[in-house]
Write a sequence for this structure.
């Protein structure tokens, strides 16, 4: 197939996507603690957050906002952090560090597409290294991975490799370009439960875009995927490619997540972390073994 055909097939995700709020986390931010790396902390946290914001969110202005995570991911972090801290547990967070290049515009060439996919691949590799580094330092901490749009792809592409990791407690994918309707994830948003809806744009060309295969039930049980009908990235419709009206509508839907407080996915994430709603009463400890509060520092390696 000629590249012009591929360009059409890749759809909104790889056309005119410079206006979309996709992406990747940049820098490192710590909730309730001074900025720094996990290694600099005196003790490991109970919960650690790693995630990615959207294409174009690596500019100096963007890096200064939302701790380099982008609006959707940072708001998600703030809400979950508040819940975790109410439990008496500690939580830190860091951003994935990678290029997060702008997605190609309408007239973008093959080189720009390959550069975009290369950015996603670089982000996937960076996240994997950051995850490995953290769990080596803090083997008892729980980890949450989160991403929005291109950043969701960065996270998604690590899930097969991290399935066996005992540290990975929860995953949040918002407007995921790699989304598959058949993935056994906890699906939220208006595309949920509708057959054949909620397919990510990159999945339309899995070989070119390196889109991942379906997730296992074990990984799906820890993963929340959020997608709304008509989203140009996670609910891609190739029939909309040539319609400027459909394009504008898809962009508006794609950028509408987390516009208000009280996110639908905060409570499920908290549940996956073993929050109070998810816990069952523990057996009474012997008198000689006092119960250790959740706020106690996790053991260091």
């Amino acid at each position: 197939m000629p590249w012009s055909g591929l360009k059409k097939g890749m759809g909104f995700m790889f056309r005119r996507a410079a206006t979309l709020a996709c992406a990747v986390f940049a820098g490192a931010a710590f909730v309730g603690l001074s900025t720094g790396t996990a290694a600099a902390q005196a003790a490991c946290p109970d919960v650690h957050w790693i995630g990615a914001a959207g294409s174009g969110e690596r500019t100096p202005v963007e890096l200064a906002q939302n701790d380099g995570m982008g609006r959707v991911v940072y708001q998600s972090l703030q809400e979950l952090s508040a819940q975790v801290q109410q439990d008496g547990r500690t939580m830190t967070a860091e951003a994935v560090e990678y290029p997060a290049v702008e997605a190609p515009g309408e007239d973008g060439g093959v080189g720009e597409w390959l550069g975009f996919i290369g950015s996603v691949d670089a982000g996937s590799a960076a996240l994997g290294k950051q995850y490995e580094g953290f769990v080596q330092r803090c083997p008892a901490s729980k980890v949450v991975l989160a991403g929005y749009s291109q950043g969701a792809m960065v996270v998604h592409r690590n899930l097969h490799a991290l399935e066996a990791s005992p540290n990975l407690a929860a995953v949040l994918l918002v407007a995921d370009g790699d989304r598959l309707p058949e993935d056994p994830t906890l699906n939220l948003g208006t595309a949920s439960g509708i057959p054949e809806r909620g397919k990510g744009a990159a999945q339309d060309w899995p070989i070119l875009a390196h889109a991942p295969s379906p997730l296992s039930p074990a990984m799906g049980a820890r993963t929340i995927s959020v997608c709304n009908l008509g989203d140009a990235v996670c609910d891609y419709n190739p029939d909309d490619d040539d319609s400027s009206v459909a394009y504008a509508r898809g962009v508006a839907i794609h950028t509408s997540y987390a516009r208000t407080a009280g996110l639908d996915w905060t409570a499920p994430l908290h549940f996956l972390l073993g929050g109070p709603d998810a816990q069952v009463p523990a057996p009474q400890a012997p008198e000689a073994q006092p119960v250790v509060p959740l706020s106690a520092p996790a053991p260091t390696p």
Remarks:
- Residues 1-41, 277-301 have pLDDT under 50 and may be disordered.
- The two ends are 53 Å apart (CA to CA).
